[in-house]
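Hi V.,

Quick status before I head out on leave. The structure for the redesign project is tokenized and pasted below; the design run finished overnight.
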């Protein structure tokens, strides 16, 4: 019998659940937005702007992007941890990845609320 102390990292369960949850959010959003676009059939810029002017669509779209970026963070972080052994380089890649994903999130918010 192996006697392990389960503390700290929780052996990846939290990240595994988070990645599955974000995938479900993205899948549900994709189906919903496809249905909306099939009904509305926007063909002009103004029509597209009208679809995303709706507060619920803006919120769901932002939730999609936050889920996408968090999903990406978990995957890329695991790649850096598994394959980049020098600690300084791995830390630098983590910081660059976080900065990019936070920047993408702010950019998505700026685009959605500028409409």
């Amino acid at each position: 019998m192996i006697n392990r102390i389960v503390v700290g990292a929780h052996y990846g369960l939290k990240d595994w659940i988070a990645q599955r949850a974000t995938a479900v959010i993205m899948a549900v959003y994709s189906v919903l937005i496809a249905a909306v676009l099939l009904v509305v059939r926007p063909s002009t810029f103004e029509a597209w702007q009208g679809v995303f002017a709706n507060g619920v669509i803006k919120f769901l779209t932002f939730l999609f992007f936050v889920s996408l970026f968090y999903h990406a963070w978990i995957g890329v972080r695991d790649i850096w941890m598994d394959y980049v052994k020098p600690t300084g380089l791995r830390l630098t890649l983590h910081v660059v990845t976080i900065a990019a994903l936070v920047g993408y999130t702010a950019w998505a918010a700026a685009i959605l609320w500028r409409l």
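Above is the designed sequence. The two ends are 60 Å apart (CA to CA).

G. will cover questions while I'm gone.

Best,
W.
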